[in-house]
Design brief:
By secondary structure, the chain is an all-alpha fold. It is about 50% helix and about 0% strand. It has three helices and no strands.
Length: about 140
Amino acid sequence: MNDMSRFRSFPTPRGDRHLGEAMRRGFIGRCPACGRGRLFRSYLKVVNTCKICGEDLSHHRADDAPAYVTMLIVGHLVAGGVLFSEEQWPHSSLLWEALFWLAATLVMSVLLLPRAKGAIVGQQWALCMHGFGGGGD
């Protein structure tokens, strides 16, 4: 017999929280609820509450996910770029090529990391995860 009662039932997200829109707002560094307030007070520090709509954002639990997403994207771009540059310029200096791709990796990582964190906070808000409107909202 197939007994599905042992599995935890997950609540359906509220209809007024659109996942794509919340992730886009987070990606550009805006509050996932209203889209006008700032999401970050410094490079990666999320504000506790939105100054515009008052949404409590202290429940986020992004943890290591933004770093993993950033490494996945930057790693694929840099690996493809290294292979492409080796194919196009086979006799170029390895030192200059390594320095260029190291700098490109650093710049892409620094630019992408807060955007990935914002998108993940937006996802958590839209899906009512970690206290974002799950119980008393």
